[in-house]
Amino acid sequence: MIDMRVDIGGVKLKNPVLVSSGTFGFGKEYSKFYDLNLLGGVAVKGITLKPRKGNKPPRIMETPAGILNSVGLENPGLDVFIEKELPFLKKYSVPIIANISGNTIEEYSLMAKELNDHVDLIELNVSCPNVKEGGIAFGTKSDSVYEVTKEVRKNCSIPIIVKLSPNVTDITEMALAAEEAGADCISLINTIMGMAIDIENRKPYFHNIVAGLSGPAVKPISLRMVWQVAQKVNIPVIGMGGISNWQDAIEFMMAGADAISIGTANFYNPLAPIEVLEGIEKYMVENGISNLSEIKINGGVK
Amino acid sequence: MQRDICRILSNHKVTGNIYKMVIESRIISKKALPGQFIHIKPGDGYDPLLRRPISICDLDADNSQVTLLYRVCGKGTRLFTHTKTGDFLDVLGPLGNGFPIFHSKRVAIIGGGIGIAPLLYLSKELIEAEVYLGFRDETYMIEDFMKYSDNISIYTEDGSKGNKGYPIEALERNIRSYDVVYACGPKIMLRAVKNLCEENHIECYISMEERMGCGIGACLVCACESSSNEEYKKVCTDGPVFNSKEVNLDD
Q: Which of A32, A58, A67 sits opposite B50 (nearest CB)?
């Protein structure tokens, strides 16, 4: 009998396969392909206090084995999310992770407070590269990661995941700041800042100039960062960034991830999370592994 | 919405960079409406990564056949040209909203270039429609349209085939004889059709194109400005067919 359960700050995930914010809408779309209860958890599209229209198109550019996106946190705002979008997901027993972004620390706190009774976990997005204010501005300095996490901690009782940006010199500093401020879990990575140029018009392809790179192309970077962070922190780590199949997922677990999340792969393979889950299960059975933590190299280097 | 592994029944060049492919899919051929699309994975690797949205050009439900017309414009569509009869494609669909069908109204269909693709199946459903098709120089699929419609006029920019000029010019002359206009083609044409219909208070449905990610409404990248300018529409699930009044086509 294999045990795939993962504990994130007291919330029990039935397995380690999550889906990443911004790649899964509010769940409805993918529910047509499989039962969402099969997942370990669902991180919903990033929410802000007020509705956001998002960035002017174009919003996507395909790159070798990846995509650049510039969606810019288009979302209906906190109230509409709670009233209109959340009830669908609540019909399932799958843990819901609300991903939130604020322009100020007060906005993060207010949203966390409001969401406390509606969702299972909160993921602080301090790493969106596609908005002018907030987002990544909080995630590239360890003292602001600390401050925003600390304030949100005071305002909610459900577990807090801090989603880190790879666009920093030393990601372990951010992870340690989040842990010290009371985060229950670290998730990484958000997209890597990239750019594309339209050579015919001699202009940046995106109106925002920079955009976020994701997909298989970023996997070696995300894997390295998960390894670095897992060495340093004593809280669970959710690894993500280009995971496309179960072999990738096992790599992340060996690097120290307690759970993994599927992002861009949902776009080209809607069944990716289920295929990954089945692959991990099979790998465990074939290798006589009964508990997920045994997958970590050296039984988890911490 | 389904994921289907479809066998390719034929795939060949029509003219220039325009190709026609017929695939086998019982589900899509039974369920798809005119104006819907399918999302096809080019190759099975990570480069190119994303699926490609391709309009359904025609269907044969009895034989489980789905006809696609596509223009080679990048890595993904070029890979499609390398696939052969008997190969398999990973397909999602049918996706998006089709054209609303009005049988008792006087209707016109206008298409430009590769935008004619979804209009063939539409003209099959609306055999009474008057069809205006425009091309740069080479015309294609005309005989297929002639199977379904007796009233087709052809335009080319250089006048090498059919009439010289643009189909919008003819539509403009006859606009008062229609209740509904359906359009698919380059944005500049769609904008002209939208303006023409709205000025004349004629119902107008346009099929839009945008780069897509998931194709099912989750990733929000295929955004199109709505007429209120307050929000973006998703071309994949709010469209690809829109009432012209829903969308803003200004640059």
A: A67
